[in-house]
């Protein structure tokens, strides 16, 4: 289901104060994104749940496709997962290990 992700549709998530253009594009997703921070990983360890990590770039075509097909669709469920995102320009070291 394709949705039009408008600011009026959803409250801002924790990405609203980030500087990365990629993260700001997802600040009004229905997904409750959290920025990359140690607390996300500690909480996931404590709850024994996986972390869904989105690494993207604001001008990446496939990042936009993923957002449209998954992150902007309220019917896509990410229950039981800790969600974190980072822009590839903010954490280039993550991509070096892939």
Descriptive key words:
three-stranded parallel sheet, alpha/beta, 32% helix, 98 residues, disordered N terminus
Apparent shape:
globular
Q: What's the β-strand tally?
A: 3
Measured distance between first and last alpha carbons: 31 Å
Mean pLDDT: 75
**CA-based gyration radius:** 13 Å
How would a textbook summarize the main sheet? 3 strands, parallel
- Oligomerization: single chain
Strand adjacency order, main sheet: 1-3-2
* SSE-based structural type: alpha/beta
* Portion of residues within helices: 25-40%
Any low-confidence stretches, pLDDT <50, length ≥5? 1-5
Q: Order of helices and strands, N to C?
A: HEHEHEH
Helical segment count: 4
Strand proportion, as a percent range, falls in 5-15%
Structure at a glance:
With 98 residues, the protein is α/β, with parallel strands linked by helices. It has four helices and three strands; from the N terminus they run H-E-H-E-H-E-H. The protein starts with 20 loop residues before the first helix and ends with a helix.
């Amino acid at each position: 289901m394709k949705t039009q992700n408008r600011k009026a549709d959803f409250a801002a998530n924790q990405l609203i104060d980030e500087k990365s253009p990629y993260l700001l594009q997802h600040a009004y997703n229905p997904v409750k994104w959290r920025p990359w921070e140690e607390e996300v990983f500690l909480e996931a360890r404590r709850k024994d749940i996986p972390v869904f990590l989105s690494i993207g770039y604001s001008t990446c075509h496939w990042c936009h496709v993923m957002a449209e097909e998954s992150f902007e669709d309220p019917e896509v469920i990410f229950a039981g997962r800790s969600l974190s995102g980072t822009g590839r320009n903010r954490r280039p070291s993550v991509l070096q290990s892939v």
